[in-house]
Specification:
206 residues, alpha+beta, 5-stranded antiparallel β-sheet
Length: 206
């Protein structure tokens, strides 16, 4: 019996479509078949809501204040990690570095395999703390919003009770509503950092 209802329903779709009928055919068919199919309506609405929510999050992050806040969040987490007996820079990379950065870093580590000590990309890897002792102080945070989903920020790092300051910078990418570190600018004046160093190493050690 239900088979015949489906055939009748299919015929009605053709009739309604050719007549330019304005009411919801899907809803009428569902009622005729004793089912209420709201999937076709719900999915686009949910998708639109998700896109809108993501856009609102990104818009909320697109401020200099948000960049400053992110730097402070990062170094609160860095100090927490440095206070542990076993420090994991990988944990910090996973939490705060961009997808592209982590991919290039993996290539650099792979390129190191089987090479002599003086031909390694990273003899030491301390991008966030730059070898300083915790608690690290962050000061003079200077954010700059760029085009699209990118920003740059420079700041000074120092050890507690020390007047010596160490300049550092981040190139930031906005990913999934969060500012992620795409590069560590270690030479502020020449605007170069770890990304260029890793890329050159990978290119010359294929």
């Amino acid at each position: 019996m239900k088979k015949y209802l489906y055939l009748i329903a299919a015929g009605l779709v053709v009739v309604f479509s050719s007549c330019g009928n304005k009411f919801n055919i899907g809803e009428k068919l569902a009622q005729m078949l004793g089912e209420e199919d709201t999937t076709a309506v719900a999915e686009p609405v949910e998708a639109k809501a998700e896109v809108k929510a993501e856009a609102e999050v990104e818009e909320d992050q697109w401020t200099e204040d948000a960049v400053v806040k992110r730097v402070k969040e990062i170094y609160a987490r860095v100090n927490e990690e440095l206070s542990k007996q076993e420090i994991s820079f990988k944990a910090l990379d996973d939490e705060f570095c961009s997808k592209d950065y982590k991919e290039l870093f993996s290539k650099a580590v792979k390129a190191e395999e089987g090479r002599k000590f003086d031909d390694l990309c990273f003899i030491e890897y301390q991008p966030f703390d730059q070898g300083l002792r915790a608690p690290i102080q962050v000061s003079d945070i200077r954010p700059k919003l760029l085009t699209g989903d990118q920003a740059e920020v420079t700041f000074n790092l120092s050890e507690e009770n020390s007047e010596e300051k160490f300049p550092l910078g981040f190139v930031l990418y906005l990913e999934d509503g969060k500012w992620m570190v795409h590069d560590f600018i270690t030479d502020i004046e020449n605007h170069t950092g770890i990304w260029d160093y890793m890329q050159k190493y990978v290119d010359t050690h294929k």
